[in-house]
Amino acid sequence: MAAKDKKTEQHIIDTAMHVFFTEGRLHATTQDIADAAGVNRTLIHYYFKSRDLLFDVVFERARLESIAEAQSVLSAALPFREKIEQFMNVFLARLQTYPYLEVSMTAAIHNGQQFDEGPEVFMKQFLLEVQQEMDKGTIQRANPVHFIMNLFSLVVYPFIVKPLNQHLFGLNEQEYEKILKERKTVILNMLFNQSVAS
Questions:
Q1: Per-residue pLDDT tens digits for 78-103
Q2: Measured between alpha carbons, how far is 105 from 153 in angstroms, rounded to an integer?
Q3: What distance in Å separates the CA atoms of residue 152 and residue 41, rounded to the nearest whole number?
Q4: Which of 39, 44, 86, 104 is deepest in the core (most CB within 10 A)?
Q5: How far apart are CA 14 and CA 36, in angstroms?
């Protein structure tokens, strides 16, 4: 067989990203990926050996891209509220593109998957920044971990339980999209407009 072509390999990865994390078909087969990519299944095995190896490649790329995006914003020299707003813009855009990525990452961690690189270094610095804002009275005083956990969960939750929320509140697709568009303002108000503990 001819030498591996980077464009073909990238096309397969991009297609797999869409199938796994946009459509939410986390158990899609190599045939499913091949059909979506418009290639022969044999070609996927040639590039990635197996469905599991392809998933691992795609998952790791998505994970590292997510970390890089978060780090670029949370490490930026921006006023605190502006930084949080920028982070939410990036996070919400990624969730709208890949709504099933966070579910997949959470499942991988629960299954004991180990990662070589993570957000620990820049997260420590961000925790210090959150503490400084608490000390200034910008946000409610608490363990800084709570602020970050609240931020992440308030952004992610509506995506990972979308079908449940739609059923629970009787919302169609357009109505739920409207709710999602309102999330940033609602979350910022919750995080910054609460009374500050003395």
A1: 999 999 999 999 999 998 888 888 88
A2: 14
A3: 38
A4: 44
A5: 10
